[in-house]
Amino acid sequence: MTAYAPSPTAAPSPLAHPRLPQAALVLASVGALGTALLSQYVGGLHPCEFCMWQRWAYVAAIVALLPGLANPRFRTASLVLGGLAFLAGAAIAGFHAGVEQHWWEGFTTCSSSMPKNLTLDQLRERLLSAPLVRCDEAQWTFHGISMAAFNFPASLVLGLVAWAAARAGAKRA
Fold first, then answer.
1. Which of 76, 136, 138, 163 has a CA positioned 20 to 30 A from the CA of residue 146?
2. Which residue ranges traverse the bilayer (predicted)?
3. Full set of structural domains in the chain with CATH
């Protein structure tokens, strides 16, 4: 009895395709952003400042990863930059989860996107109608785990996958 060995004419596995990890990372990022936007606009969960920063990390990852999908010359650098964006997002999510758990204090400042030339009545109306979203209170949890706490390992794993794919691509080249 002989061991199975694939014939040299057999088609390569789709998992061996060099663009697959990059495409999967882009799809995961789009999925994460879509989930965040659905939770906001359909679920009514308004994001705090830290939540918005975590979204920007996914946007940065997408922007970094797309050139590597389009041109193989940029693939390794694109994966490294995408990995950095994911790891930055993991750091933000970890910090945010710690603030929600009251392990440490969050930032005391907040940002505002209010236009500068509002009348007093317009400003009062905007402030009264705007939802108050605190970074130290989780709006939604599943078995005590907040979205930021879910995002931490997800972003960390995506970052490590991006770096592993970059390393594998560099070895192939």
1. 163
2. 23-43, 55-72, 79-99, 140-166
3. 19-105+135-172 (1.20.1550.10)
